[in-house]
Fold this sequence. Notes:
Blueprint: H1 2-19, H2 21-34, H3 49-63, H4 74-91, H5 100-119, H6 123-150, H7 168-188, H8 192-210, H9 215-231, H10 235-252, H11 255-262, H12 271-289, H13 302-308, H14 321-354, H15 362-381, H16 391-416
Amino acid sequence: xxxxxxxxxxxxxxxxALKHPAIGILGWVWISVMNPHRLAWGFAYNFPFAxxxxxxxxxxxxxxxxxRQFPVTPATVALxxxxxxxxxxxxxxxxxxxxxxSWSKIMKVLFMTLIALMVIVTREQxxxxxxxxxxxxxxxxxxxxxxxxxxGGSFTVWGPSGSYxxxxxxxxxxxxxxxxxxxxLQLTEQNVWVKRGLLVSMVLCGVSAIGSYSRGAxxxxxxxxxxxxxxxxxxxxxxxxxxxxxxxxxxxxxxKWEDRMHTIQTYDQDASALGRLxxxxxxxxxxxxxxxxxxxxxxxxxxxxxxxxxxxxNVHAAHSxxxxxxxxxxxxxxxxxxxxxxxxxxxxxxxxxxxxxxxxWQWANLLARMIxxxxxxxxxxxxxxxxxxxxxxxxxxxxxEATRRCVILSHRDTSSLPIMAGRVRPxxxxxxxxxxxxxxx
Length: 441
């Protein structure tokens, strides 16, 4: 039954995507982020729905009359340079014969991000993309929160298999990044029941992140909540909610959760933490040896660790977006990766500044603030997770750039109008002297 529902949903999207590529991007984001086919048990489980949606979207670009224009900004240029850097690095990769699967997966995500930057241009499309992300990730966050409450926090929350968020730590960070977007919709939605549902989902996503037993998620959620309070317009009700709910959730969790969180203070005695430090040292040594290209994809194996790690036999994944990029793509790759986040943040700061005290643009002001909060969550939680190529942070770039473009276009339209709303059109004194043109039929 689930297989049929997913197929019918994709078939419903396809003709609309052919006419409006923005709808195709929404379908792509839904499939790539939520992985709904992984919730089925039949033929849909391994069907390449994402590839179908990508092809339909690209085909729609050929025939559509919708407005489309790629924004050339520091953030988008950094993104393109990052893609070029990864392709060049792959030519000099240590394991060139093993990298195709990783390279292909990452390039597809980033290429569709470029398409999204081109076709997501209106306020309605921006909001639709926010809702798509909220539904796609909110499903797992809400379900995970309920699961944690019903089981007393005794079990770990996991994501869909074969996705970026399959691991408990990854799903936790994804749901933490989602909370600011839920907050944006909750503040801008008109329907009272939808607002309440979004508020409940925010709380359950937080519970799900805590129920993941992820220490990195605990750090990320602390920073996210601090910046969410700082960036939100209604600080007192939010502070009261946090003060009431957080202690209740923490007391609710079992002793084994508390014991695991306490290992943050004794990281030098924890095998997992020591493995991460060893992997970071390996990435640093590898980058020093190959500063321009790094080692390429698929470098976390005994061969590479034997050459560059302090403890050759302690093989771990990077467990850090920063060391992951540094080890795989060298210092240029890390520079471009950091530049994407930095210039996206600056873009948000520009939006906030330009829309301040302008009621008609409060949606853009609030969205930019919430995207920045999501960036903080990713920057802090990502320091302990191998999620450098997770697609959601790149969709945040799309949201920020599209919002900036809306603000700029509104300014241009306003400045190009000779008469502003509310002003009287000046009288053309030469109008009476002009001959009246007539047309014979």
